[in-house]
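Customer escalation, tier 2.

The customer says the design service returned an amino acid string that "doesn't look like it belongs to this structure." They asked us to rerun it and document both sides in this ticket. The original structure tokens are below, unchanged.
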């Protein structure tokens, strides 16, 4: 290692937190606590590990503990690292940075019975069974980049059919619920799975020989229809998916 007079030697820093990200060259005096200075390229600052990765003039690359540097240089390197991290985080993600996968499921089922009042005026105890299903999705988000991705959020609409036993015509009528869910940091080339919130689908079944006076049906049921999901980072729409895809043209966000 070549040690020179710290009063006369300056180092050109090319600071990076990742191999593809660089700051503009900046000159600074870099010395250790023994008053020695070294001419080198700073390749990366590993804040969690408390190390700085440098390359000497002879091409050798190695790491030094940040605590070996004088406080002024120690603080300057950390500040530059934070600046680069903020700049990197503000860059738009590419459309293929993440991959979305959805799997539907009924997360909760409850049943109850209620009395039914007939057109004759009589009441049948426990004449109808009402089943309530809470439907949602398991969402898997894959990070396809060599860097962690954070500060994502999912905004989505869940849709279910509305089945009114009093209406004879079979018409597709949808109800929807809107949610926003923050997404935890996804490590490089890794993935996470989370559950969405749910939408309720109600099923009704008359017991015995009871049927609807208007439709003649003894059963009626709602069902999960689909989901329209968008993933954002800040104001950037990173990825979008709909199941079925027709929701994006037939429904309003």
């Amino acid at each position: 290692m070549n040690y020179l007079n710290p009063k006369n030697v300056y180092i050109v820093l090319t600071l990076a937190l990742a191999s593809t990200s660089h700051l503009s060259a900046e000159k600074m005096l870099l010395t250790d606590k023994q008053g020695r200075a070294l001419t080198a390229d700073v390749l990366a600052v590993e804040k969690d590990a408390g190390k700085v990765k440098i390359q000497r003039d002879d091409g050798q690359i190695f790491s030094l503990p940040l605590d070996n540097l004088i406080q002024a240089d120690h603080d300057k390197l950390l500040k530059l690292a934070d600046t680069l991290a903020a700049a990197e985080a503000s860059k738009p993600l590419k459309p293929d940075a993440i991959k979305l996968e959805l799997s539907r499921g009924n997360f909760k089922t409850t049943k109850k019975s209620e009395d039914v009042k007939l057109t004759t005026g009589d009441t049948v105890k426990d004449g109808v069974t009402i089943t309530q299903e809470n439907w949602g999705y398991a969402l898997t988000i894959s990070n396809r980049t060599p860097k962690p991705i954070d500060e994502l959020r999912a905004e989505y609409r869940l849709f279910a059919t509305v089945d009114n036993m009093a209406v004879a015509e079979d018409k597709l009528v949808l109800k929807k619920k809107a949610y926003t869910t923050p997404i935890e940091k996804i490590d490089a080339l890794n993935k996470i799975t989370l559950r969405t919130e749910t939408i309720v689908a109600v099923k009704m079944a008359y017991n015995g020989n009871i049927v609807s006076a208007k439709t003649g049906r003894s059963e009626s049921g709602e069902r999960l229809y689909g989901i329209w999901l968008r993933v954002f980072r800040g104001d950037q729409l990173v990825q979008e998916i709909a199941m079925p895809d027709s929701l994006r043209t037939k429904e309003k966000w």
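Tier 2 assessment: The sequence is consistent with the input. The first strand starts at residue 11 and ends at 13. The helical segments are 71-90, 247-250. Sent an explanation to the customer and offered a walkthrough call.
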